[in-house]
Amino acid sequence: MFRERKARREVSAQQTIHVDGEWRNALDGSTREILDPAEARPFTVVAEGGAADADLAIAAARRAFDEGPWPQTPVAERAALLRRVADFLVRDREELGLLESRDAGKTVEEGRVDVDCVADAFRYFADLVIGEGPGRVVDAGSDTVHSTVVHEPVGVCAMITPWNYPLLQASWKIAPALAAGNTFVVKPSEITPLTTVALIRLLEEAGLPAGVANIVTGPGHTVGARFAEHQDVDLISFTGGLISGTKVAEAAAKSVKKVALELGGKNPNVVFADACATEEGFDTAVDQALNAAFIHSGQVCSAGGRLIVEESVRERFVAELARRASQIRLGRGTADGVECGPLVSQQQLDKTEGYVASALAEGAVLRCGGKRPAPSEDRPAEGYFYEPTVLDRCHREMRVVRKEVFGPVLTVETFTTEDEALALANDTEYGLAGAVWTSDNSKARRMARRMRHGTVWINDFHPYLPQAEWGGFGKSGVGRELGPSGLAEYRETKHIYQNLDPRPVRWFAG
Questions:
Q1: What is the pLDDT of residues 4-51, one digit of tens each?
Q2: What does the pLDDT average to over 269-295?
Q3: DSSP single-letter state for residue 147
Q4: Most C-beta atoms within 10 A of its C-beta, which of 43, 183, 273, 510?
Q5: 2 falls in which pLDDT band (50, 70, 90)?
Q6: CA-CA distance, 359 to 366, in Å (whole number)?
Q7: In the prediction, which pLDDT does 12 show?
Q8: CB of 414 within 8 A of CB of 310?
Q9: Rounded Cα distance, 396 and 434, in Å
Q10: Phi/psi at 478 (nearest 5 deg)?
Q11: Is the pLDDT of residue 1 over 80?
Q12: Considering only CA atoms, which of 464, 455, 409, 408 is closest in space to residue 436?
């Protein structure tokens, strides 16, 4: 049965490179098969662009910024276009949610939620720019001077987005860039490009002028590298891994362009015993620990993969956590009743298996999972499935505790005092997000203030707001997305000083 599923089918190629208002193939004719991670077989083919395609896209964006109407388009018109895109996203919610599920492996419901969040982001940035004034008046200390600070678009923005949240991460960059009046080129992950392609089509349908939005589907080492080094790119925004992000920053430094990086995290979920003092509190903390670690099979930059639990409740908490984790329904994301889909690729599956093997070799105790599941009708043997895994008795020297796994793996560490909990939470080179669970409000506020992470949840995990900044400390990156700071990333600040009564200075005697 499974051999029959793996049989190759002919799939037609799509024109997925969009330059100056035209859809096209790669200049050299290269293509790439896009695999369904639940079956490990191709279901479509896209254009595989290279450096030459990137050059054309950047040139189109440059012309559209320097000569086109978009940067001078009134703010009200830009905001109206963003709202039209949001309406189109709502209209196409089912289609886009299904496409995101099939491309990235997540459940259809997760895909639908992503589409909702993308629509929210477009509406937020539309509202943000429409509510702004003409600039900040600066008191120059003289009635004869008019001084203002204004914000202008950066110019040509290059965007490189990850494979885990293709549509969502693209929107966090595209919406503020357009709201600010920029033009852009975007390179989605080569393994999950389809919903970003769909988003560009929606921008086209909404009436965005040709050349403002350009997409090149292709690999990071050619297209992404060209984006980072190109002299005509004014800003590069990258979301992805630390190693790749470092390369982007190094290449961008040569032309001194603006850089925004979101490079992942190793996120602590700190549970104090008092949060578990009641049955309701215990149930909630366990349930949220599952959500923190296993949503989208742990392939989330803010995944709560490090459970740091107070020693006095450790055994009960971990036992119940492992029991529930072992019952998570694993299968293809498009199947009814499935709660968790496959990993995105064979590479990610191999990486996850390697982390678990090293943890067990270093003394971790396996409480559940730790292997590929048996195949079923909704879980083909060829798919990249891995069981939700709980590793107990972990410590900070373990590779699985220090490095970002990006798989369904939860490690358990323990503490006995608040200071020890804080030290564990901050003992990471990353600093993207973290959570603290406690019924003591004073303790919660102390921990939140002292945790070195860009987002700290108290008695919750994972929610974000488009009006609140997102980003991290340390090696989690530089800059912020979302919120007013997310818009500011795509702007340059200019001071305009006007002397209303100019007179000679007479600094020089002659």
A1: 333 334 445 689 999 999 999 999 999 999 999 999 999 999 999 999
A2: 98
A3: E
A4: 183
A5: very low
A6: 9
A7: 54
A8: yes
A9: 16
A10: -130, 145
A11: no
A12: 455
Contacts of 154 (CB under 8 A, 6+ apart): 180, 182, 234, 235, 258, 490, 491, 492
Q: What torsion, rounded to 10 degrees, do the Cα atoms 337, 340, 346, 352 define?
A: -150
**What's the pLDDT tens digit per position in 359-381?**
999 999 999 999 999 999 999 99
The C-alpha atoms of residue 30 and residue 26 are separated, in whole angstroms, by 6
- Within 10 angstroms of residue 402's Cβ, the number of other Cβ atoms is 15
| Paired tokens of 103 | 């491309």
Nearest to 21 by CA among 183, 145, 204: 204
DSSP one-letter string for 425-463: HH-SS--SEEEEE-S-HHHHHHHHHH--SSEEEES--S-
Q: Alpha carbon of 395 to those of 271, 317, 388, 411, 433: distances in Å?
A: 16, 18, 20, 9, 20
Q: Is 332 helix (H, G, I), strand (E, B) or coil?
A: coil
Q: Is 235 exposed, middle or buried (0-12, 13-18, 19+ CB in 10 A)?
A: buried
Length of the chain: 510
Amino acid present at 332: R
| pLDDT confidence tier of residue 116, bands split at 50, 70 and 90 | very high
Paired tokens of 131 = 């509510």
DSSP string, 52-100: HHHHHHHHHHHHHHHTSSGGGS-HHHHHHHHHHHHHHHHHTHHHHHHHH
Catalytic residues: 262
